[in-house]
Amino acid sequence: MSDSLIFDRRAVRRHRDRAAATVETVADILADTAGRLLDRLDDTTRIFTRALDVGGRGIVSPLLRARGIETFACDLSPRMAARAGAPAVAADEEFLPFAPHSFDLVVANLSLHWVNDLPGALIQLRHALRPDGLLLASLPALGTLAELRTALTEAEADMSGGAAPRVSPFPDLRDCAALLQRAGFALPVADVEDIKLLYADPLRLLRDLRAAGEANAVALRDRRPPPSALFAHALASMPQQDGRTVATLRLAIMTGWAPGPDQPQPLQPGTAKHSLADALTRPDQDAAI
To answer: What is the CATH number of the domain that holds 37?
Structure first.
């Protein structure tokens, strides 16, 4: 495997294949994040007719179909793709098989953060969109699982004098809109919502990550079994709220439009009908800041 790759894509596929049988146990969390993402559809008057669900784990496709949108699905894992219902196909997000201008809506809910070439994947999704088509994507942003990352790093350092990467790296929110712009999307917007997850049994957090297909797939991960006491030691040191262990999902929500002729365009320099100087010097206008 090349040292330049951040993630082991074969491991990602294995994890998602395995999780196809267990993902229902975390359906409430996935449905909550999908609902937050699809709420953005209510902010536009655009009518969407044909959507692509990328890695929705069988949660997103039914929600889109309930809105009357013809929906196709894809997933790196064949078993997970099948959960979305037909039509669905197993496809690598880094090598998508869809023809240009196939969809007017693409939804990727918590499915792009294991991609090595994220700008390239976003470019392919833009190509799959019709002009004026919309991309809705959510990613775990920097700060997600910060409590677990810190606890594992400190526990492993105490026990062995070093620490292996055990939590995936996540993008900073500031990078998300820039990624959309770099991929050629118009009107890129990224905002963030913090979701606090509380666990009476902290081991349930690790089980939920595994059930969702979110086990460690970092290419440079330590392949050896971890020390038997590592996770118990780390989980015991995580922050508590009302007697329960706290884990944060920092959800970055990204929206971008495939360029099209009907989108608002900035004025060309020199085409404005009124100057700023006029607005500042006319005595009959109230000033506003």
So the answer is: 3.40.50.150
